[in-house]
Amino acid sequence: MKYPPLVALLLLSGLISASGAQAQDLARGKAVYNSRCVVCHGDQGDGKGLIGIVHRAQTNGLVTTTYPRDFTAGVFKFRSTPSGQLPTDDDLMRIVTEGISRSGMPSHTDVAETDRRSVIEYIKTFSDRWEQDGPGEPLPIGDAPALVGSEESTERGRVVYDTMRCAICHGEMGRGDGTASAGLQDSWGDAIVPFDFTSGPVKGGSTPEMIYRTFMTGLDGTPMPSYQDAMPEEADRWDLVSFCLRLMQG
Ligand code: HEC
Ligand code: HEC
Asked: Is the shortest distance between the CB of 120 and ligand 2 below 6 Å?
């Protein structure tokens, strides 16, 4: 790299350093982490902070616990990127800003935007994956077509739900009680249940576009798979969104 003479002189004299800004950003990120995240995510980023368990819920008689994410694994649920890939900074910003409903992960709208960006850079230091792979490319998701939610689309979506066998986990009526729903575990060996559509808001966002995204990307680290390849037709995907929205109405 070629520096202008004054900058080169300052660099040589050690008065400034090429990665100074980045190091400062990380130091800031660490400070934000220690004041706002460490109690749950832990000082090693392994999810074993002082508050180990922040959310318990009962679904179909089974009590499940949601633990704070272990950042050392480099595995994230709510992404715009394909299955198995790292989330984008925008994905992480959304999570940190808005939080995750029904999980105990709080929103941080009171933290300055630059501080939220710094803390995101800091949590990346807990896993080598960020240096090896880098974030994935977001899947292109257009605006939901007007037919989403219509009676015809919902009925076609019922067939897609059947063909894709969503019911083996989520159940015929979407109550999370399908034949394969018992004994499921996440990547950390903790018990997990398929989402009960009749129980309230989804975690990843309940707009048609966000529901589309959930079954396209899958939720990494959980048994919820990606259907990107299994469902190549755009029309089927939006019909399935219609049916999911119907299930959520109970
Ligand atoms: C009160 C506890 C708590 C605090 C404080 C907290 N989190 Fe979380 N966080 C959680 C829980 C619980 C989850 C797991 C949610 C799930 O799996 O559904 C989580 C998940 C996450 C995820 C993973 C999202 C994904 O797509 O997998 C990120 C990123 C995250 N937190 C960042 C942060 C940052 C940054 C801070 C501080 C600014 C923070 N959290 C503060 C409890 C907390
Ligand atoms: C092998 C079991 C399994 C199958 C098959 C399955 N899911 Fe899931 N799904 C899950 C689990 C487990 C969760 C809960 C993940 C969590 O709470 O972190 C989930 C969560 C969801 C959510 C809620 C996500 C959120 O933001 O809270 C939606 C929507 C969903 N699944 C749709 C579908 C659709 C549509 C199909 C079929 C195309 C399907 N799932 C097939 C296991 C499955």
From this structure: no
